[in-house]
Amino acid sequence: MKREFVSEQQPPQQSDPQQPYPQPQTPYPQQPYPQPAYAQQPPPNYYVPPQKSNVLRNVLLILCAVAVLFIGGCAVTVGFLFKEVGESIDEGLSKDEPVVVAEGKAFQRDGFEVEKGWKVAPADFGDLTITGLEVALNEDEDTDGRTARFSFRFYDGKRVAAEADCYSNEMQPGESSAMECGSFDPDTTYDTIKVADTW
Fold it and tell me: In whole angstroms, how far apart are CA 29 and each of 19, 32, 151?
């Protein structure tokens, strides 16, 4: 007897139209090959983003600097004005303080010079007055004219015994004038005469 070998026929492999060659069948799935390290880096970027504009910031900084300078300038100006006004007030107060004078002697007061030879005497009705009072304006400042106004106070110890107010005509620098004096106080005894400016 003859043995016939019947070969098992395998169905023909069908090829995948997308794969040109048939893939052998393997019992294990194919593992991907590790990628080299340089392949994981992104490609170089040749795009350079535009720089941010700082115009707004620069304008604000300039405005702040100008504001600080303006406020500082105003503070300096106000401080200077306060200083000038304070000095002027101090000078005015010092001019207003009475100074001791001797009867008949020359003296200077607030840019005016009083000539010697004046005297205290009773007026026609018995009131106190000052006669022979001549004054000259000696200040160097340009002025539209000034009038001398003095208050003479007569002290008996610390008590003001009498007071006489005197005034001149208006004068320009270098000019002189007689002063007219008047008082409502009677002629009295005194030991000290003080002169102050009146306004």
Answer: 17, 10, 127
